[in-house]
Amino acid sequence: MKKTFTTATLAMIAGAIAAPALAQDITFWSWRQEDRAVYEELIDQFEAENEGINVSFEAFEAASYATVLSTALAGDQGPDAMMVRAYGAFETVAAGGYLMPLDAESIPGLDSFPAAALTAETLREDGKVYAVPFASQTMLVIYNKDIYDQLGLSVPQTKDELLANAKAIEDAGMFAFANGTATAWQNETIASALASSIVGPDFYAEISAGTTDFNDPRFIEGMKALQEYSEYFPDGFTGLDYASAQQLIASGLAAMFAGGSFELANIQSQNPDINLGVFAAPGVSADDPKLVGVFFDGGYAGNANTEHPEAVKKFLAFLASQEFAQQFANKLGNISPVPGVTLENPLLQDVATLNQSSVPYIFLTNFRFQEPSGSVLIQAEVQRMLAGESDPAAVGKAVTDGIAIYHEPFQK
Length: 412
Prior knowledge:
The chain is α/β, with parallel strands linked by helices and about 400 residues long. It has helices spanning about 1-20, 35-50, 60-75, 85-95, 115-120, 145-150, 160-170, 185-200, 200-210, 215-230, 240-250, 265-270, 310-320, 320-330, 345-355, 360-365, 375-385, 390-405; strands spanning about 25-30, 55-60, 80-85, 120-125, 130, 130-135, 135-145, 175, 255-260, 275-280, 290-295, 300, 360.
């Protein structure tokens, strides 16, 4: 009997040695359904380097993701690791105590990320970082280089030059800008992409410091410039939605599109032969700083209640690594905030260069934490102004009055 017991015990020990020690299965949720293949490829690399940790990737429809994630977390059915939004949407999840706090000890290299990227994933209440930032997005002008070359146009250095380019494009029988205003959130991107250089860097610094508001003449001038540019939007642009505007630029029917760097891959997927360039809409003078609006687009977080915290931290450390970020940038066409990443795509490199002279995408970065959010206000007011129902001064007043409900510096 003793011999039989010993043989069985040895068999169990041999089996334990043959299997990965402490095998851990973790789940990873995302709203990026279109990126599944790349994420699964990168997860395979992580699993090969971390025997015994198995990551299951699940992607949801973007519009419903926040609701799906919040409901799951509240019911203790959430994923072990997850993509989360930034700024106000991030705080909605982080303030509930659902996310594990992160630091450079648990996530090597986290402290080398840009301060603005970490701020986007920091809970203001306790000052702790709860997610690894994954991408920046840039508001700028995307243009069709072939149309510019065909018409002998160059990248504009002043507002008047940009308006002249727009007129020349229209005179040639094409749409100058593809933009419409029927999709509300697009009005915020249009304002940032086209007006930032007119408004100027000092205004954004003072808004953040609480020493001015949106009644400031510099902001009003930016709205006036936006009105001027809208004269070169397609006829009926107030009824033109986001998808239709994208098709105009992708098809080559329009020469320019004021929007985000996140549009580039989408436009090129619709038309692989299109020859795109990017520039910052200029200021009044050629000497004015040429500014783009920048925000950070979310992060990777761990569930505070996961059964496998060490495995999750290892996975988050991989997502924060240069090894991951390099492939993320070049395979998914995003600009990673991980220091030292090199961009193979020359168009993305041009965006990264523009980012060196940037201002915050202010209504998201500063005023999307309470209601009415700055984003909702500016989107509605720009829509009204460009429909001829309002004017630039009224935009500044309505936005300021709305934010003043909860923002003390605007209550003076």
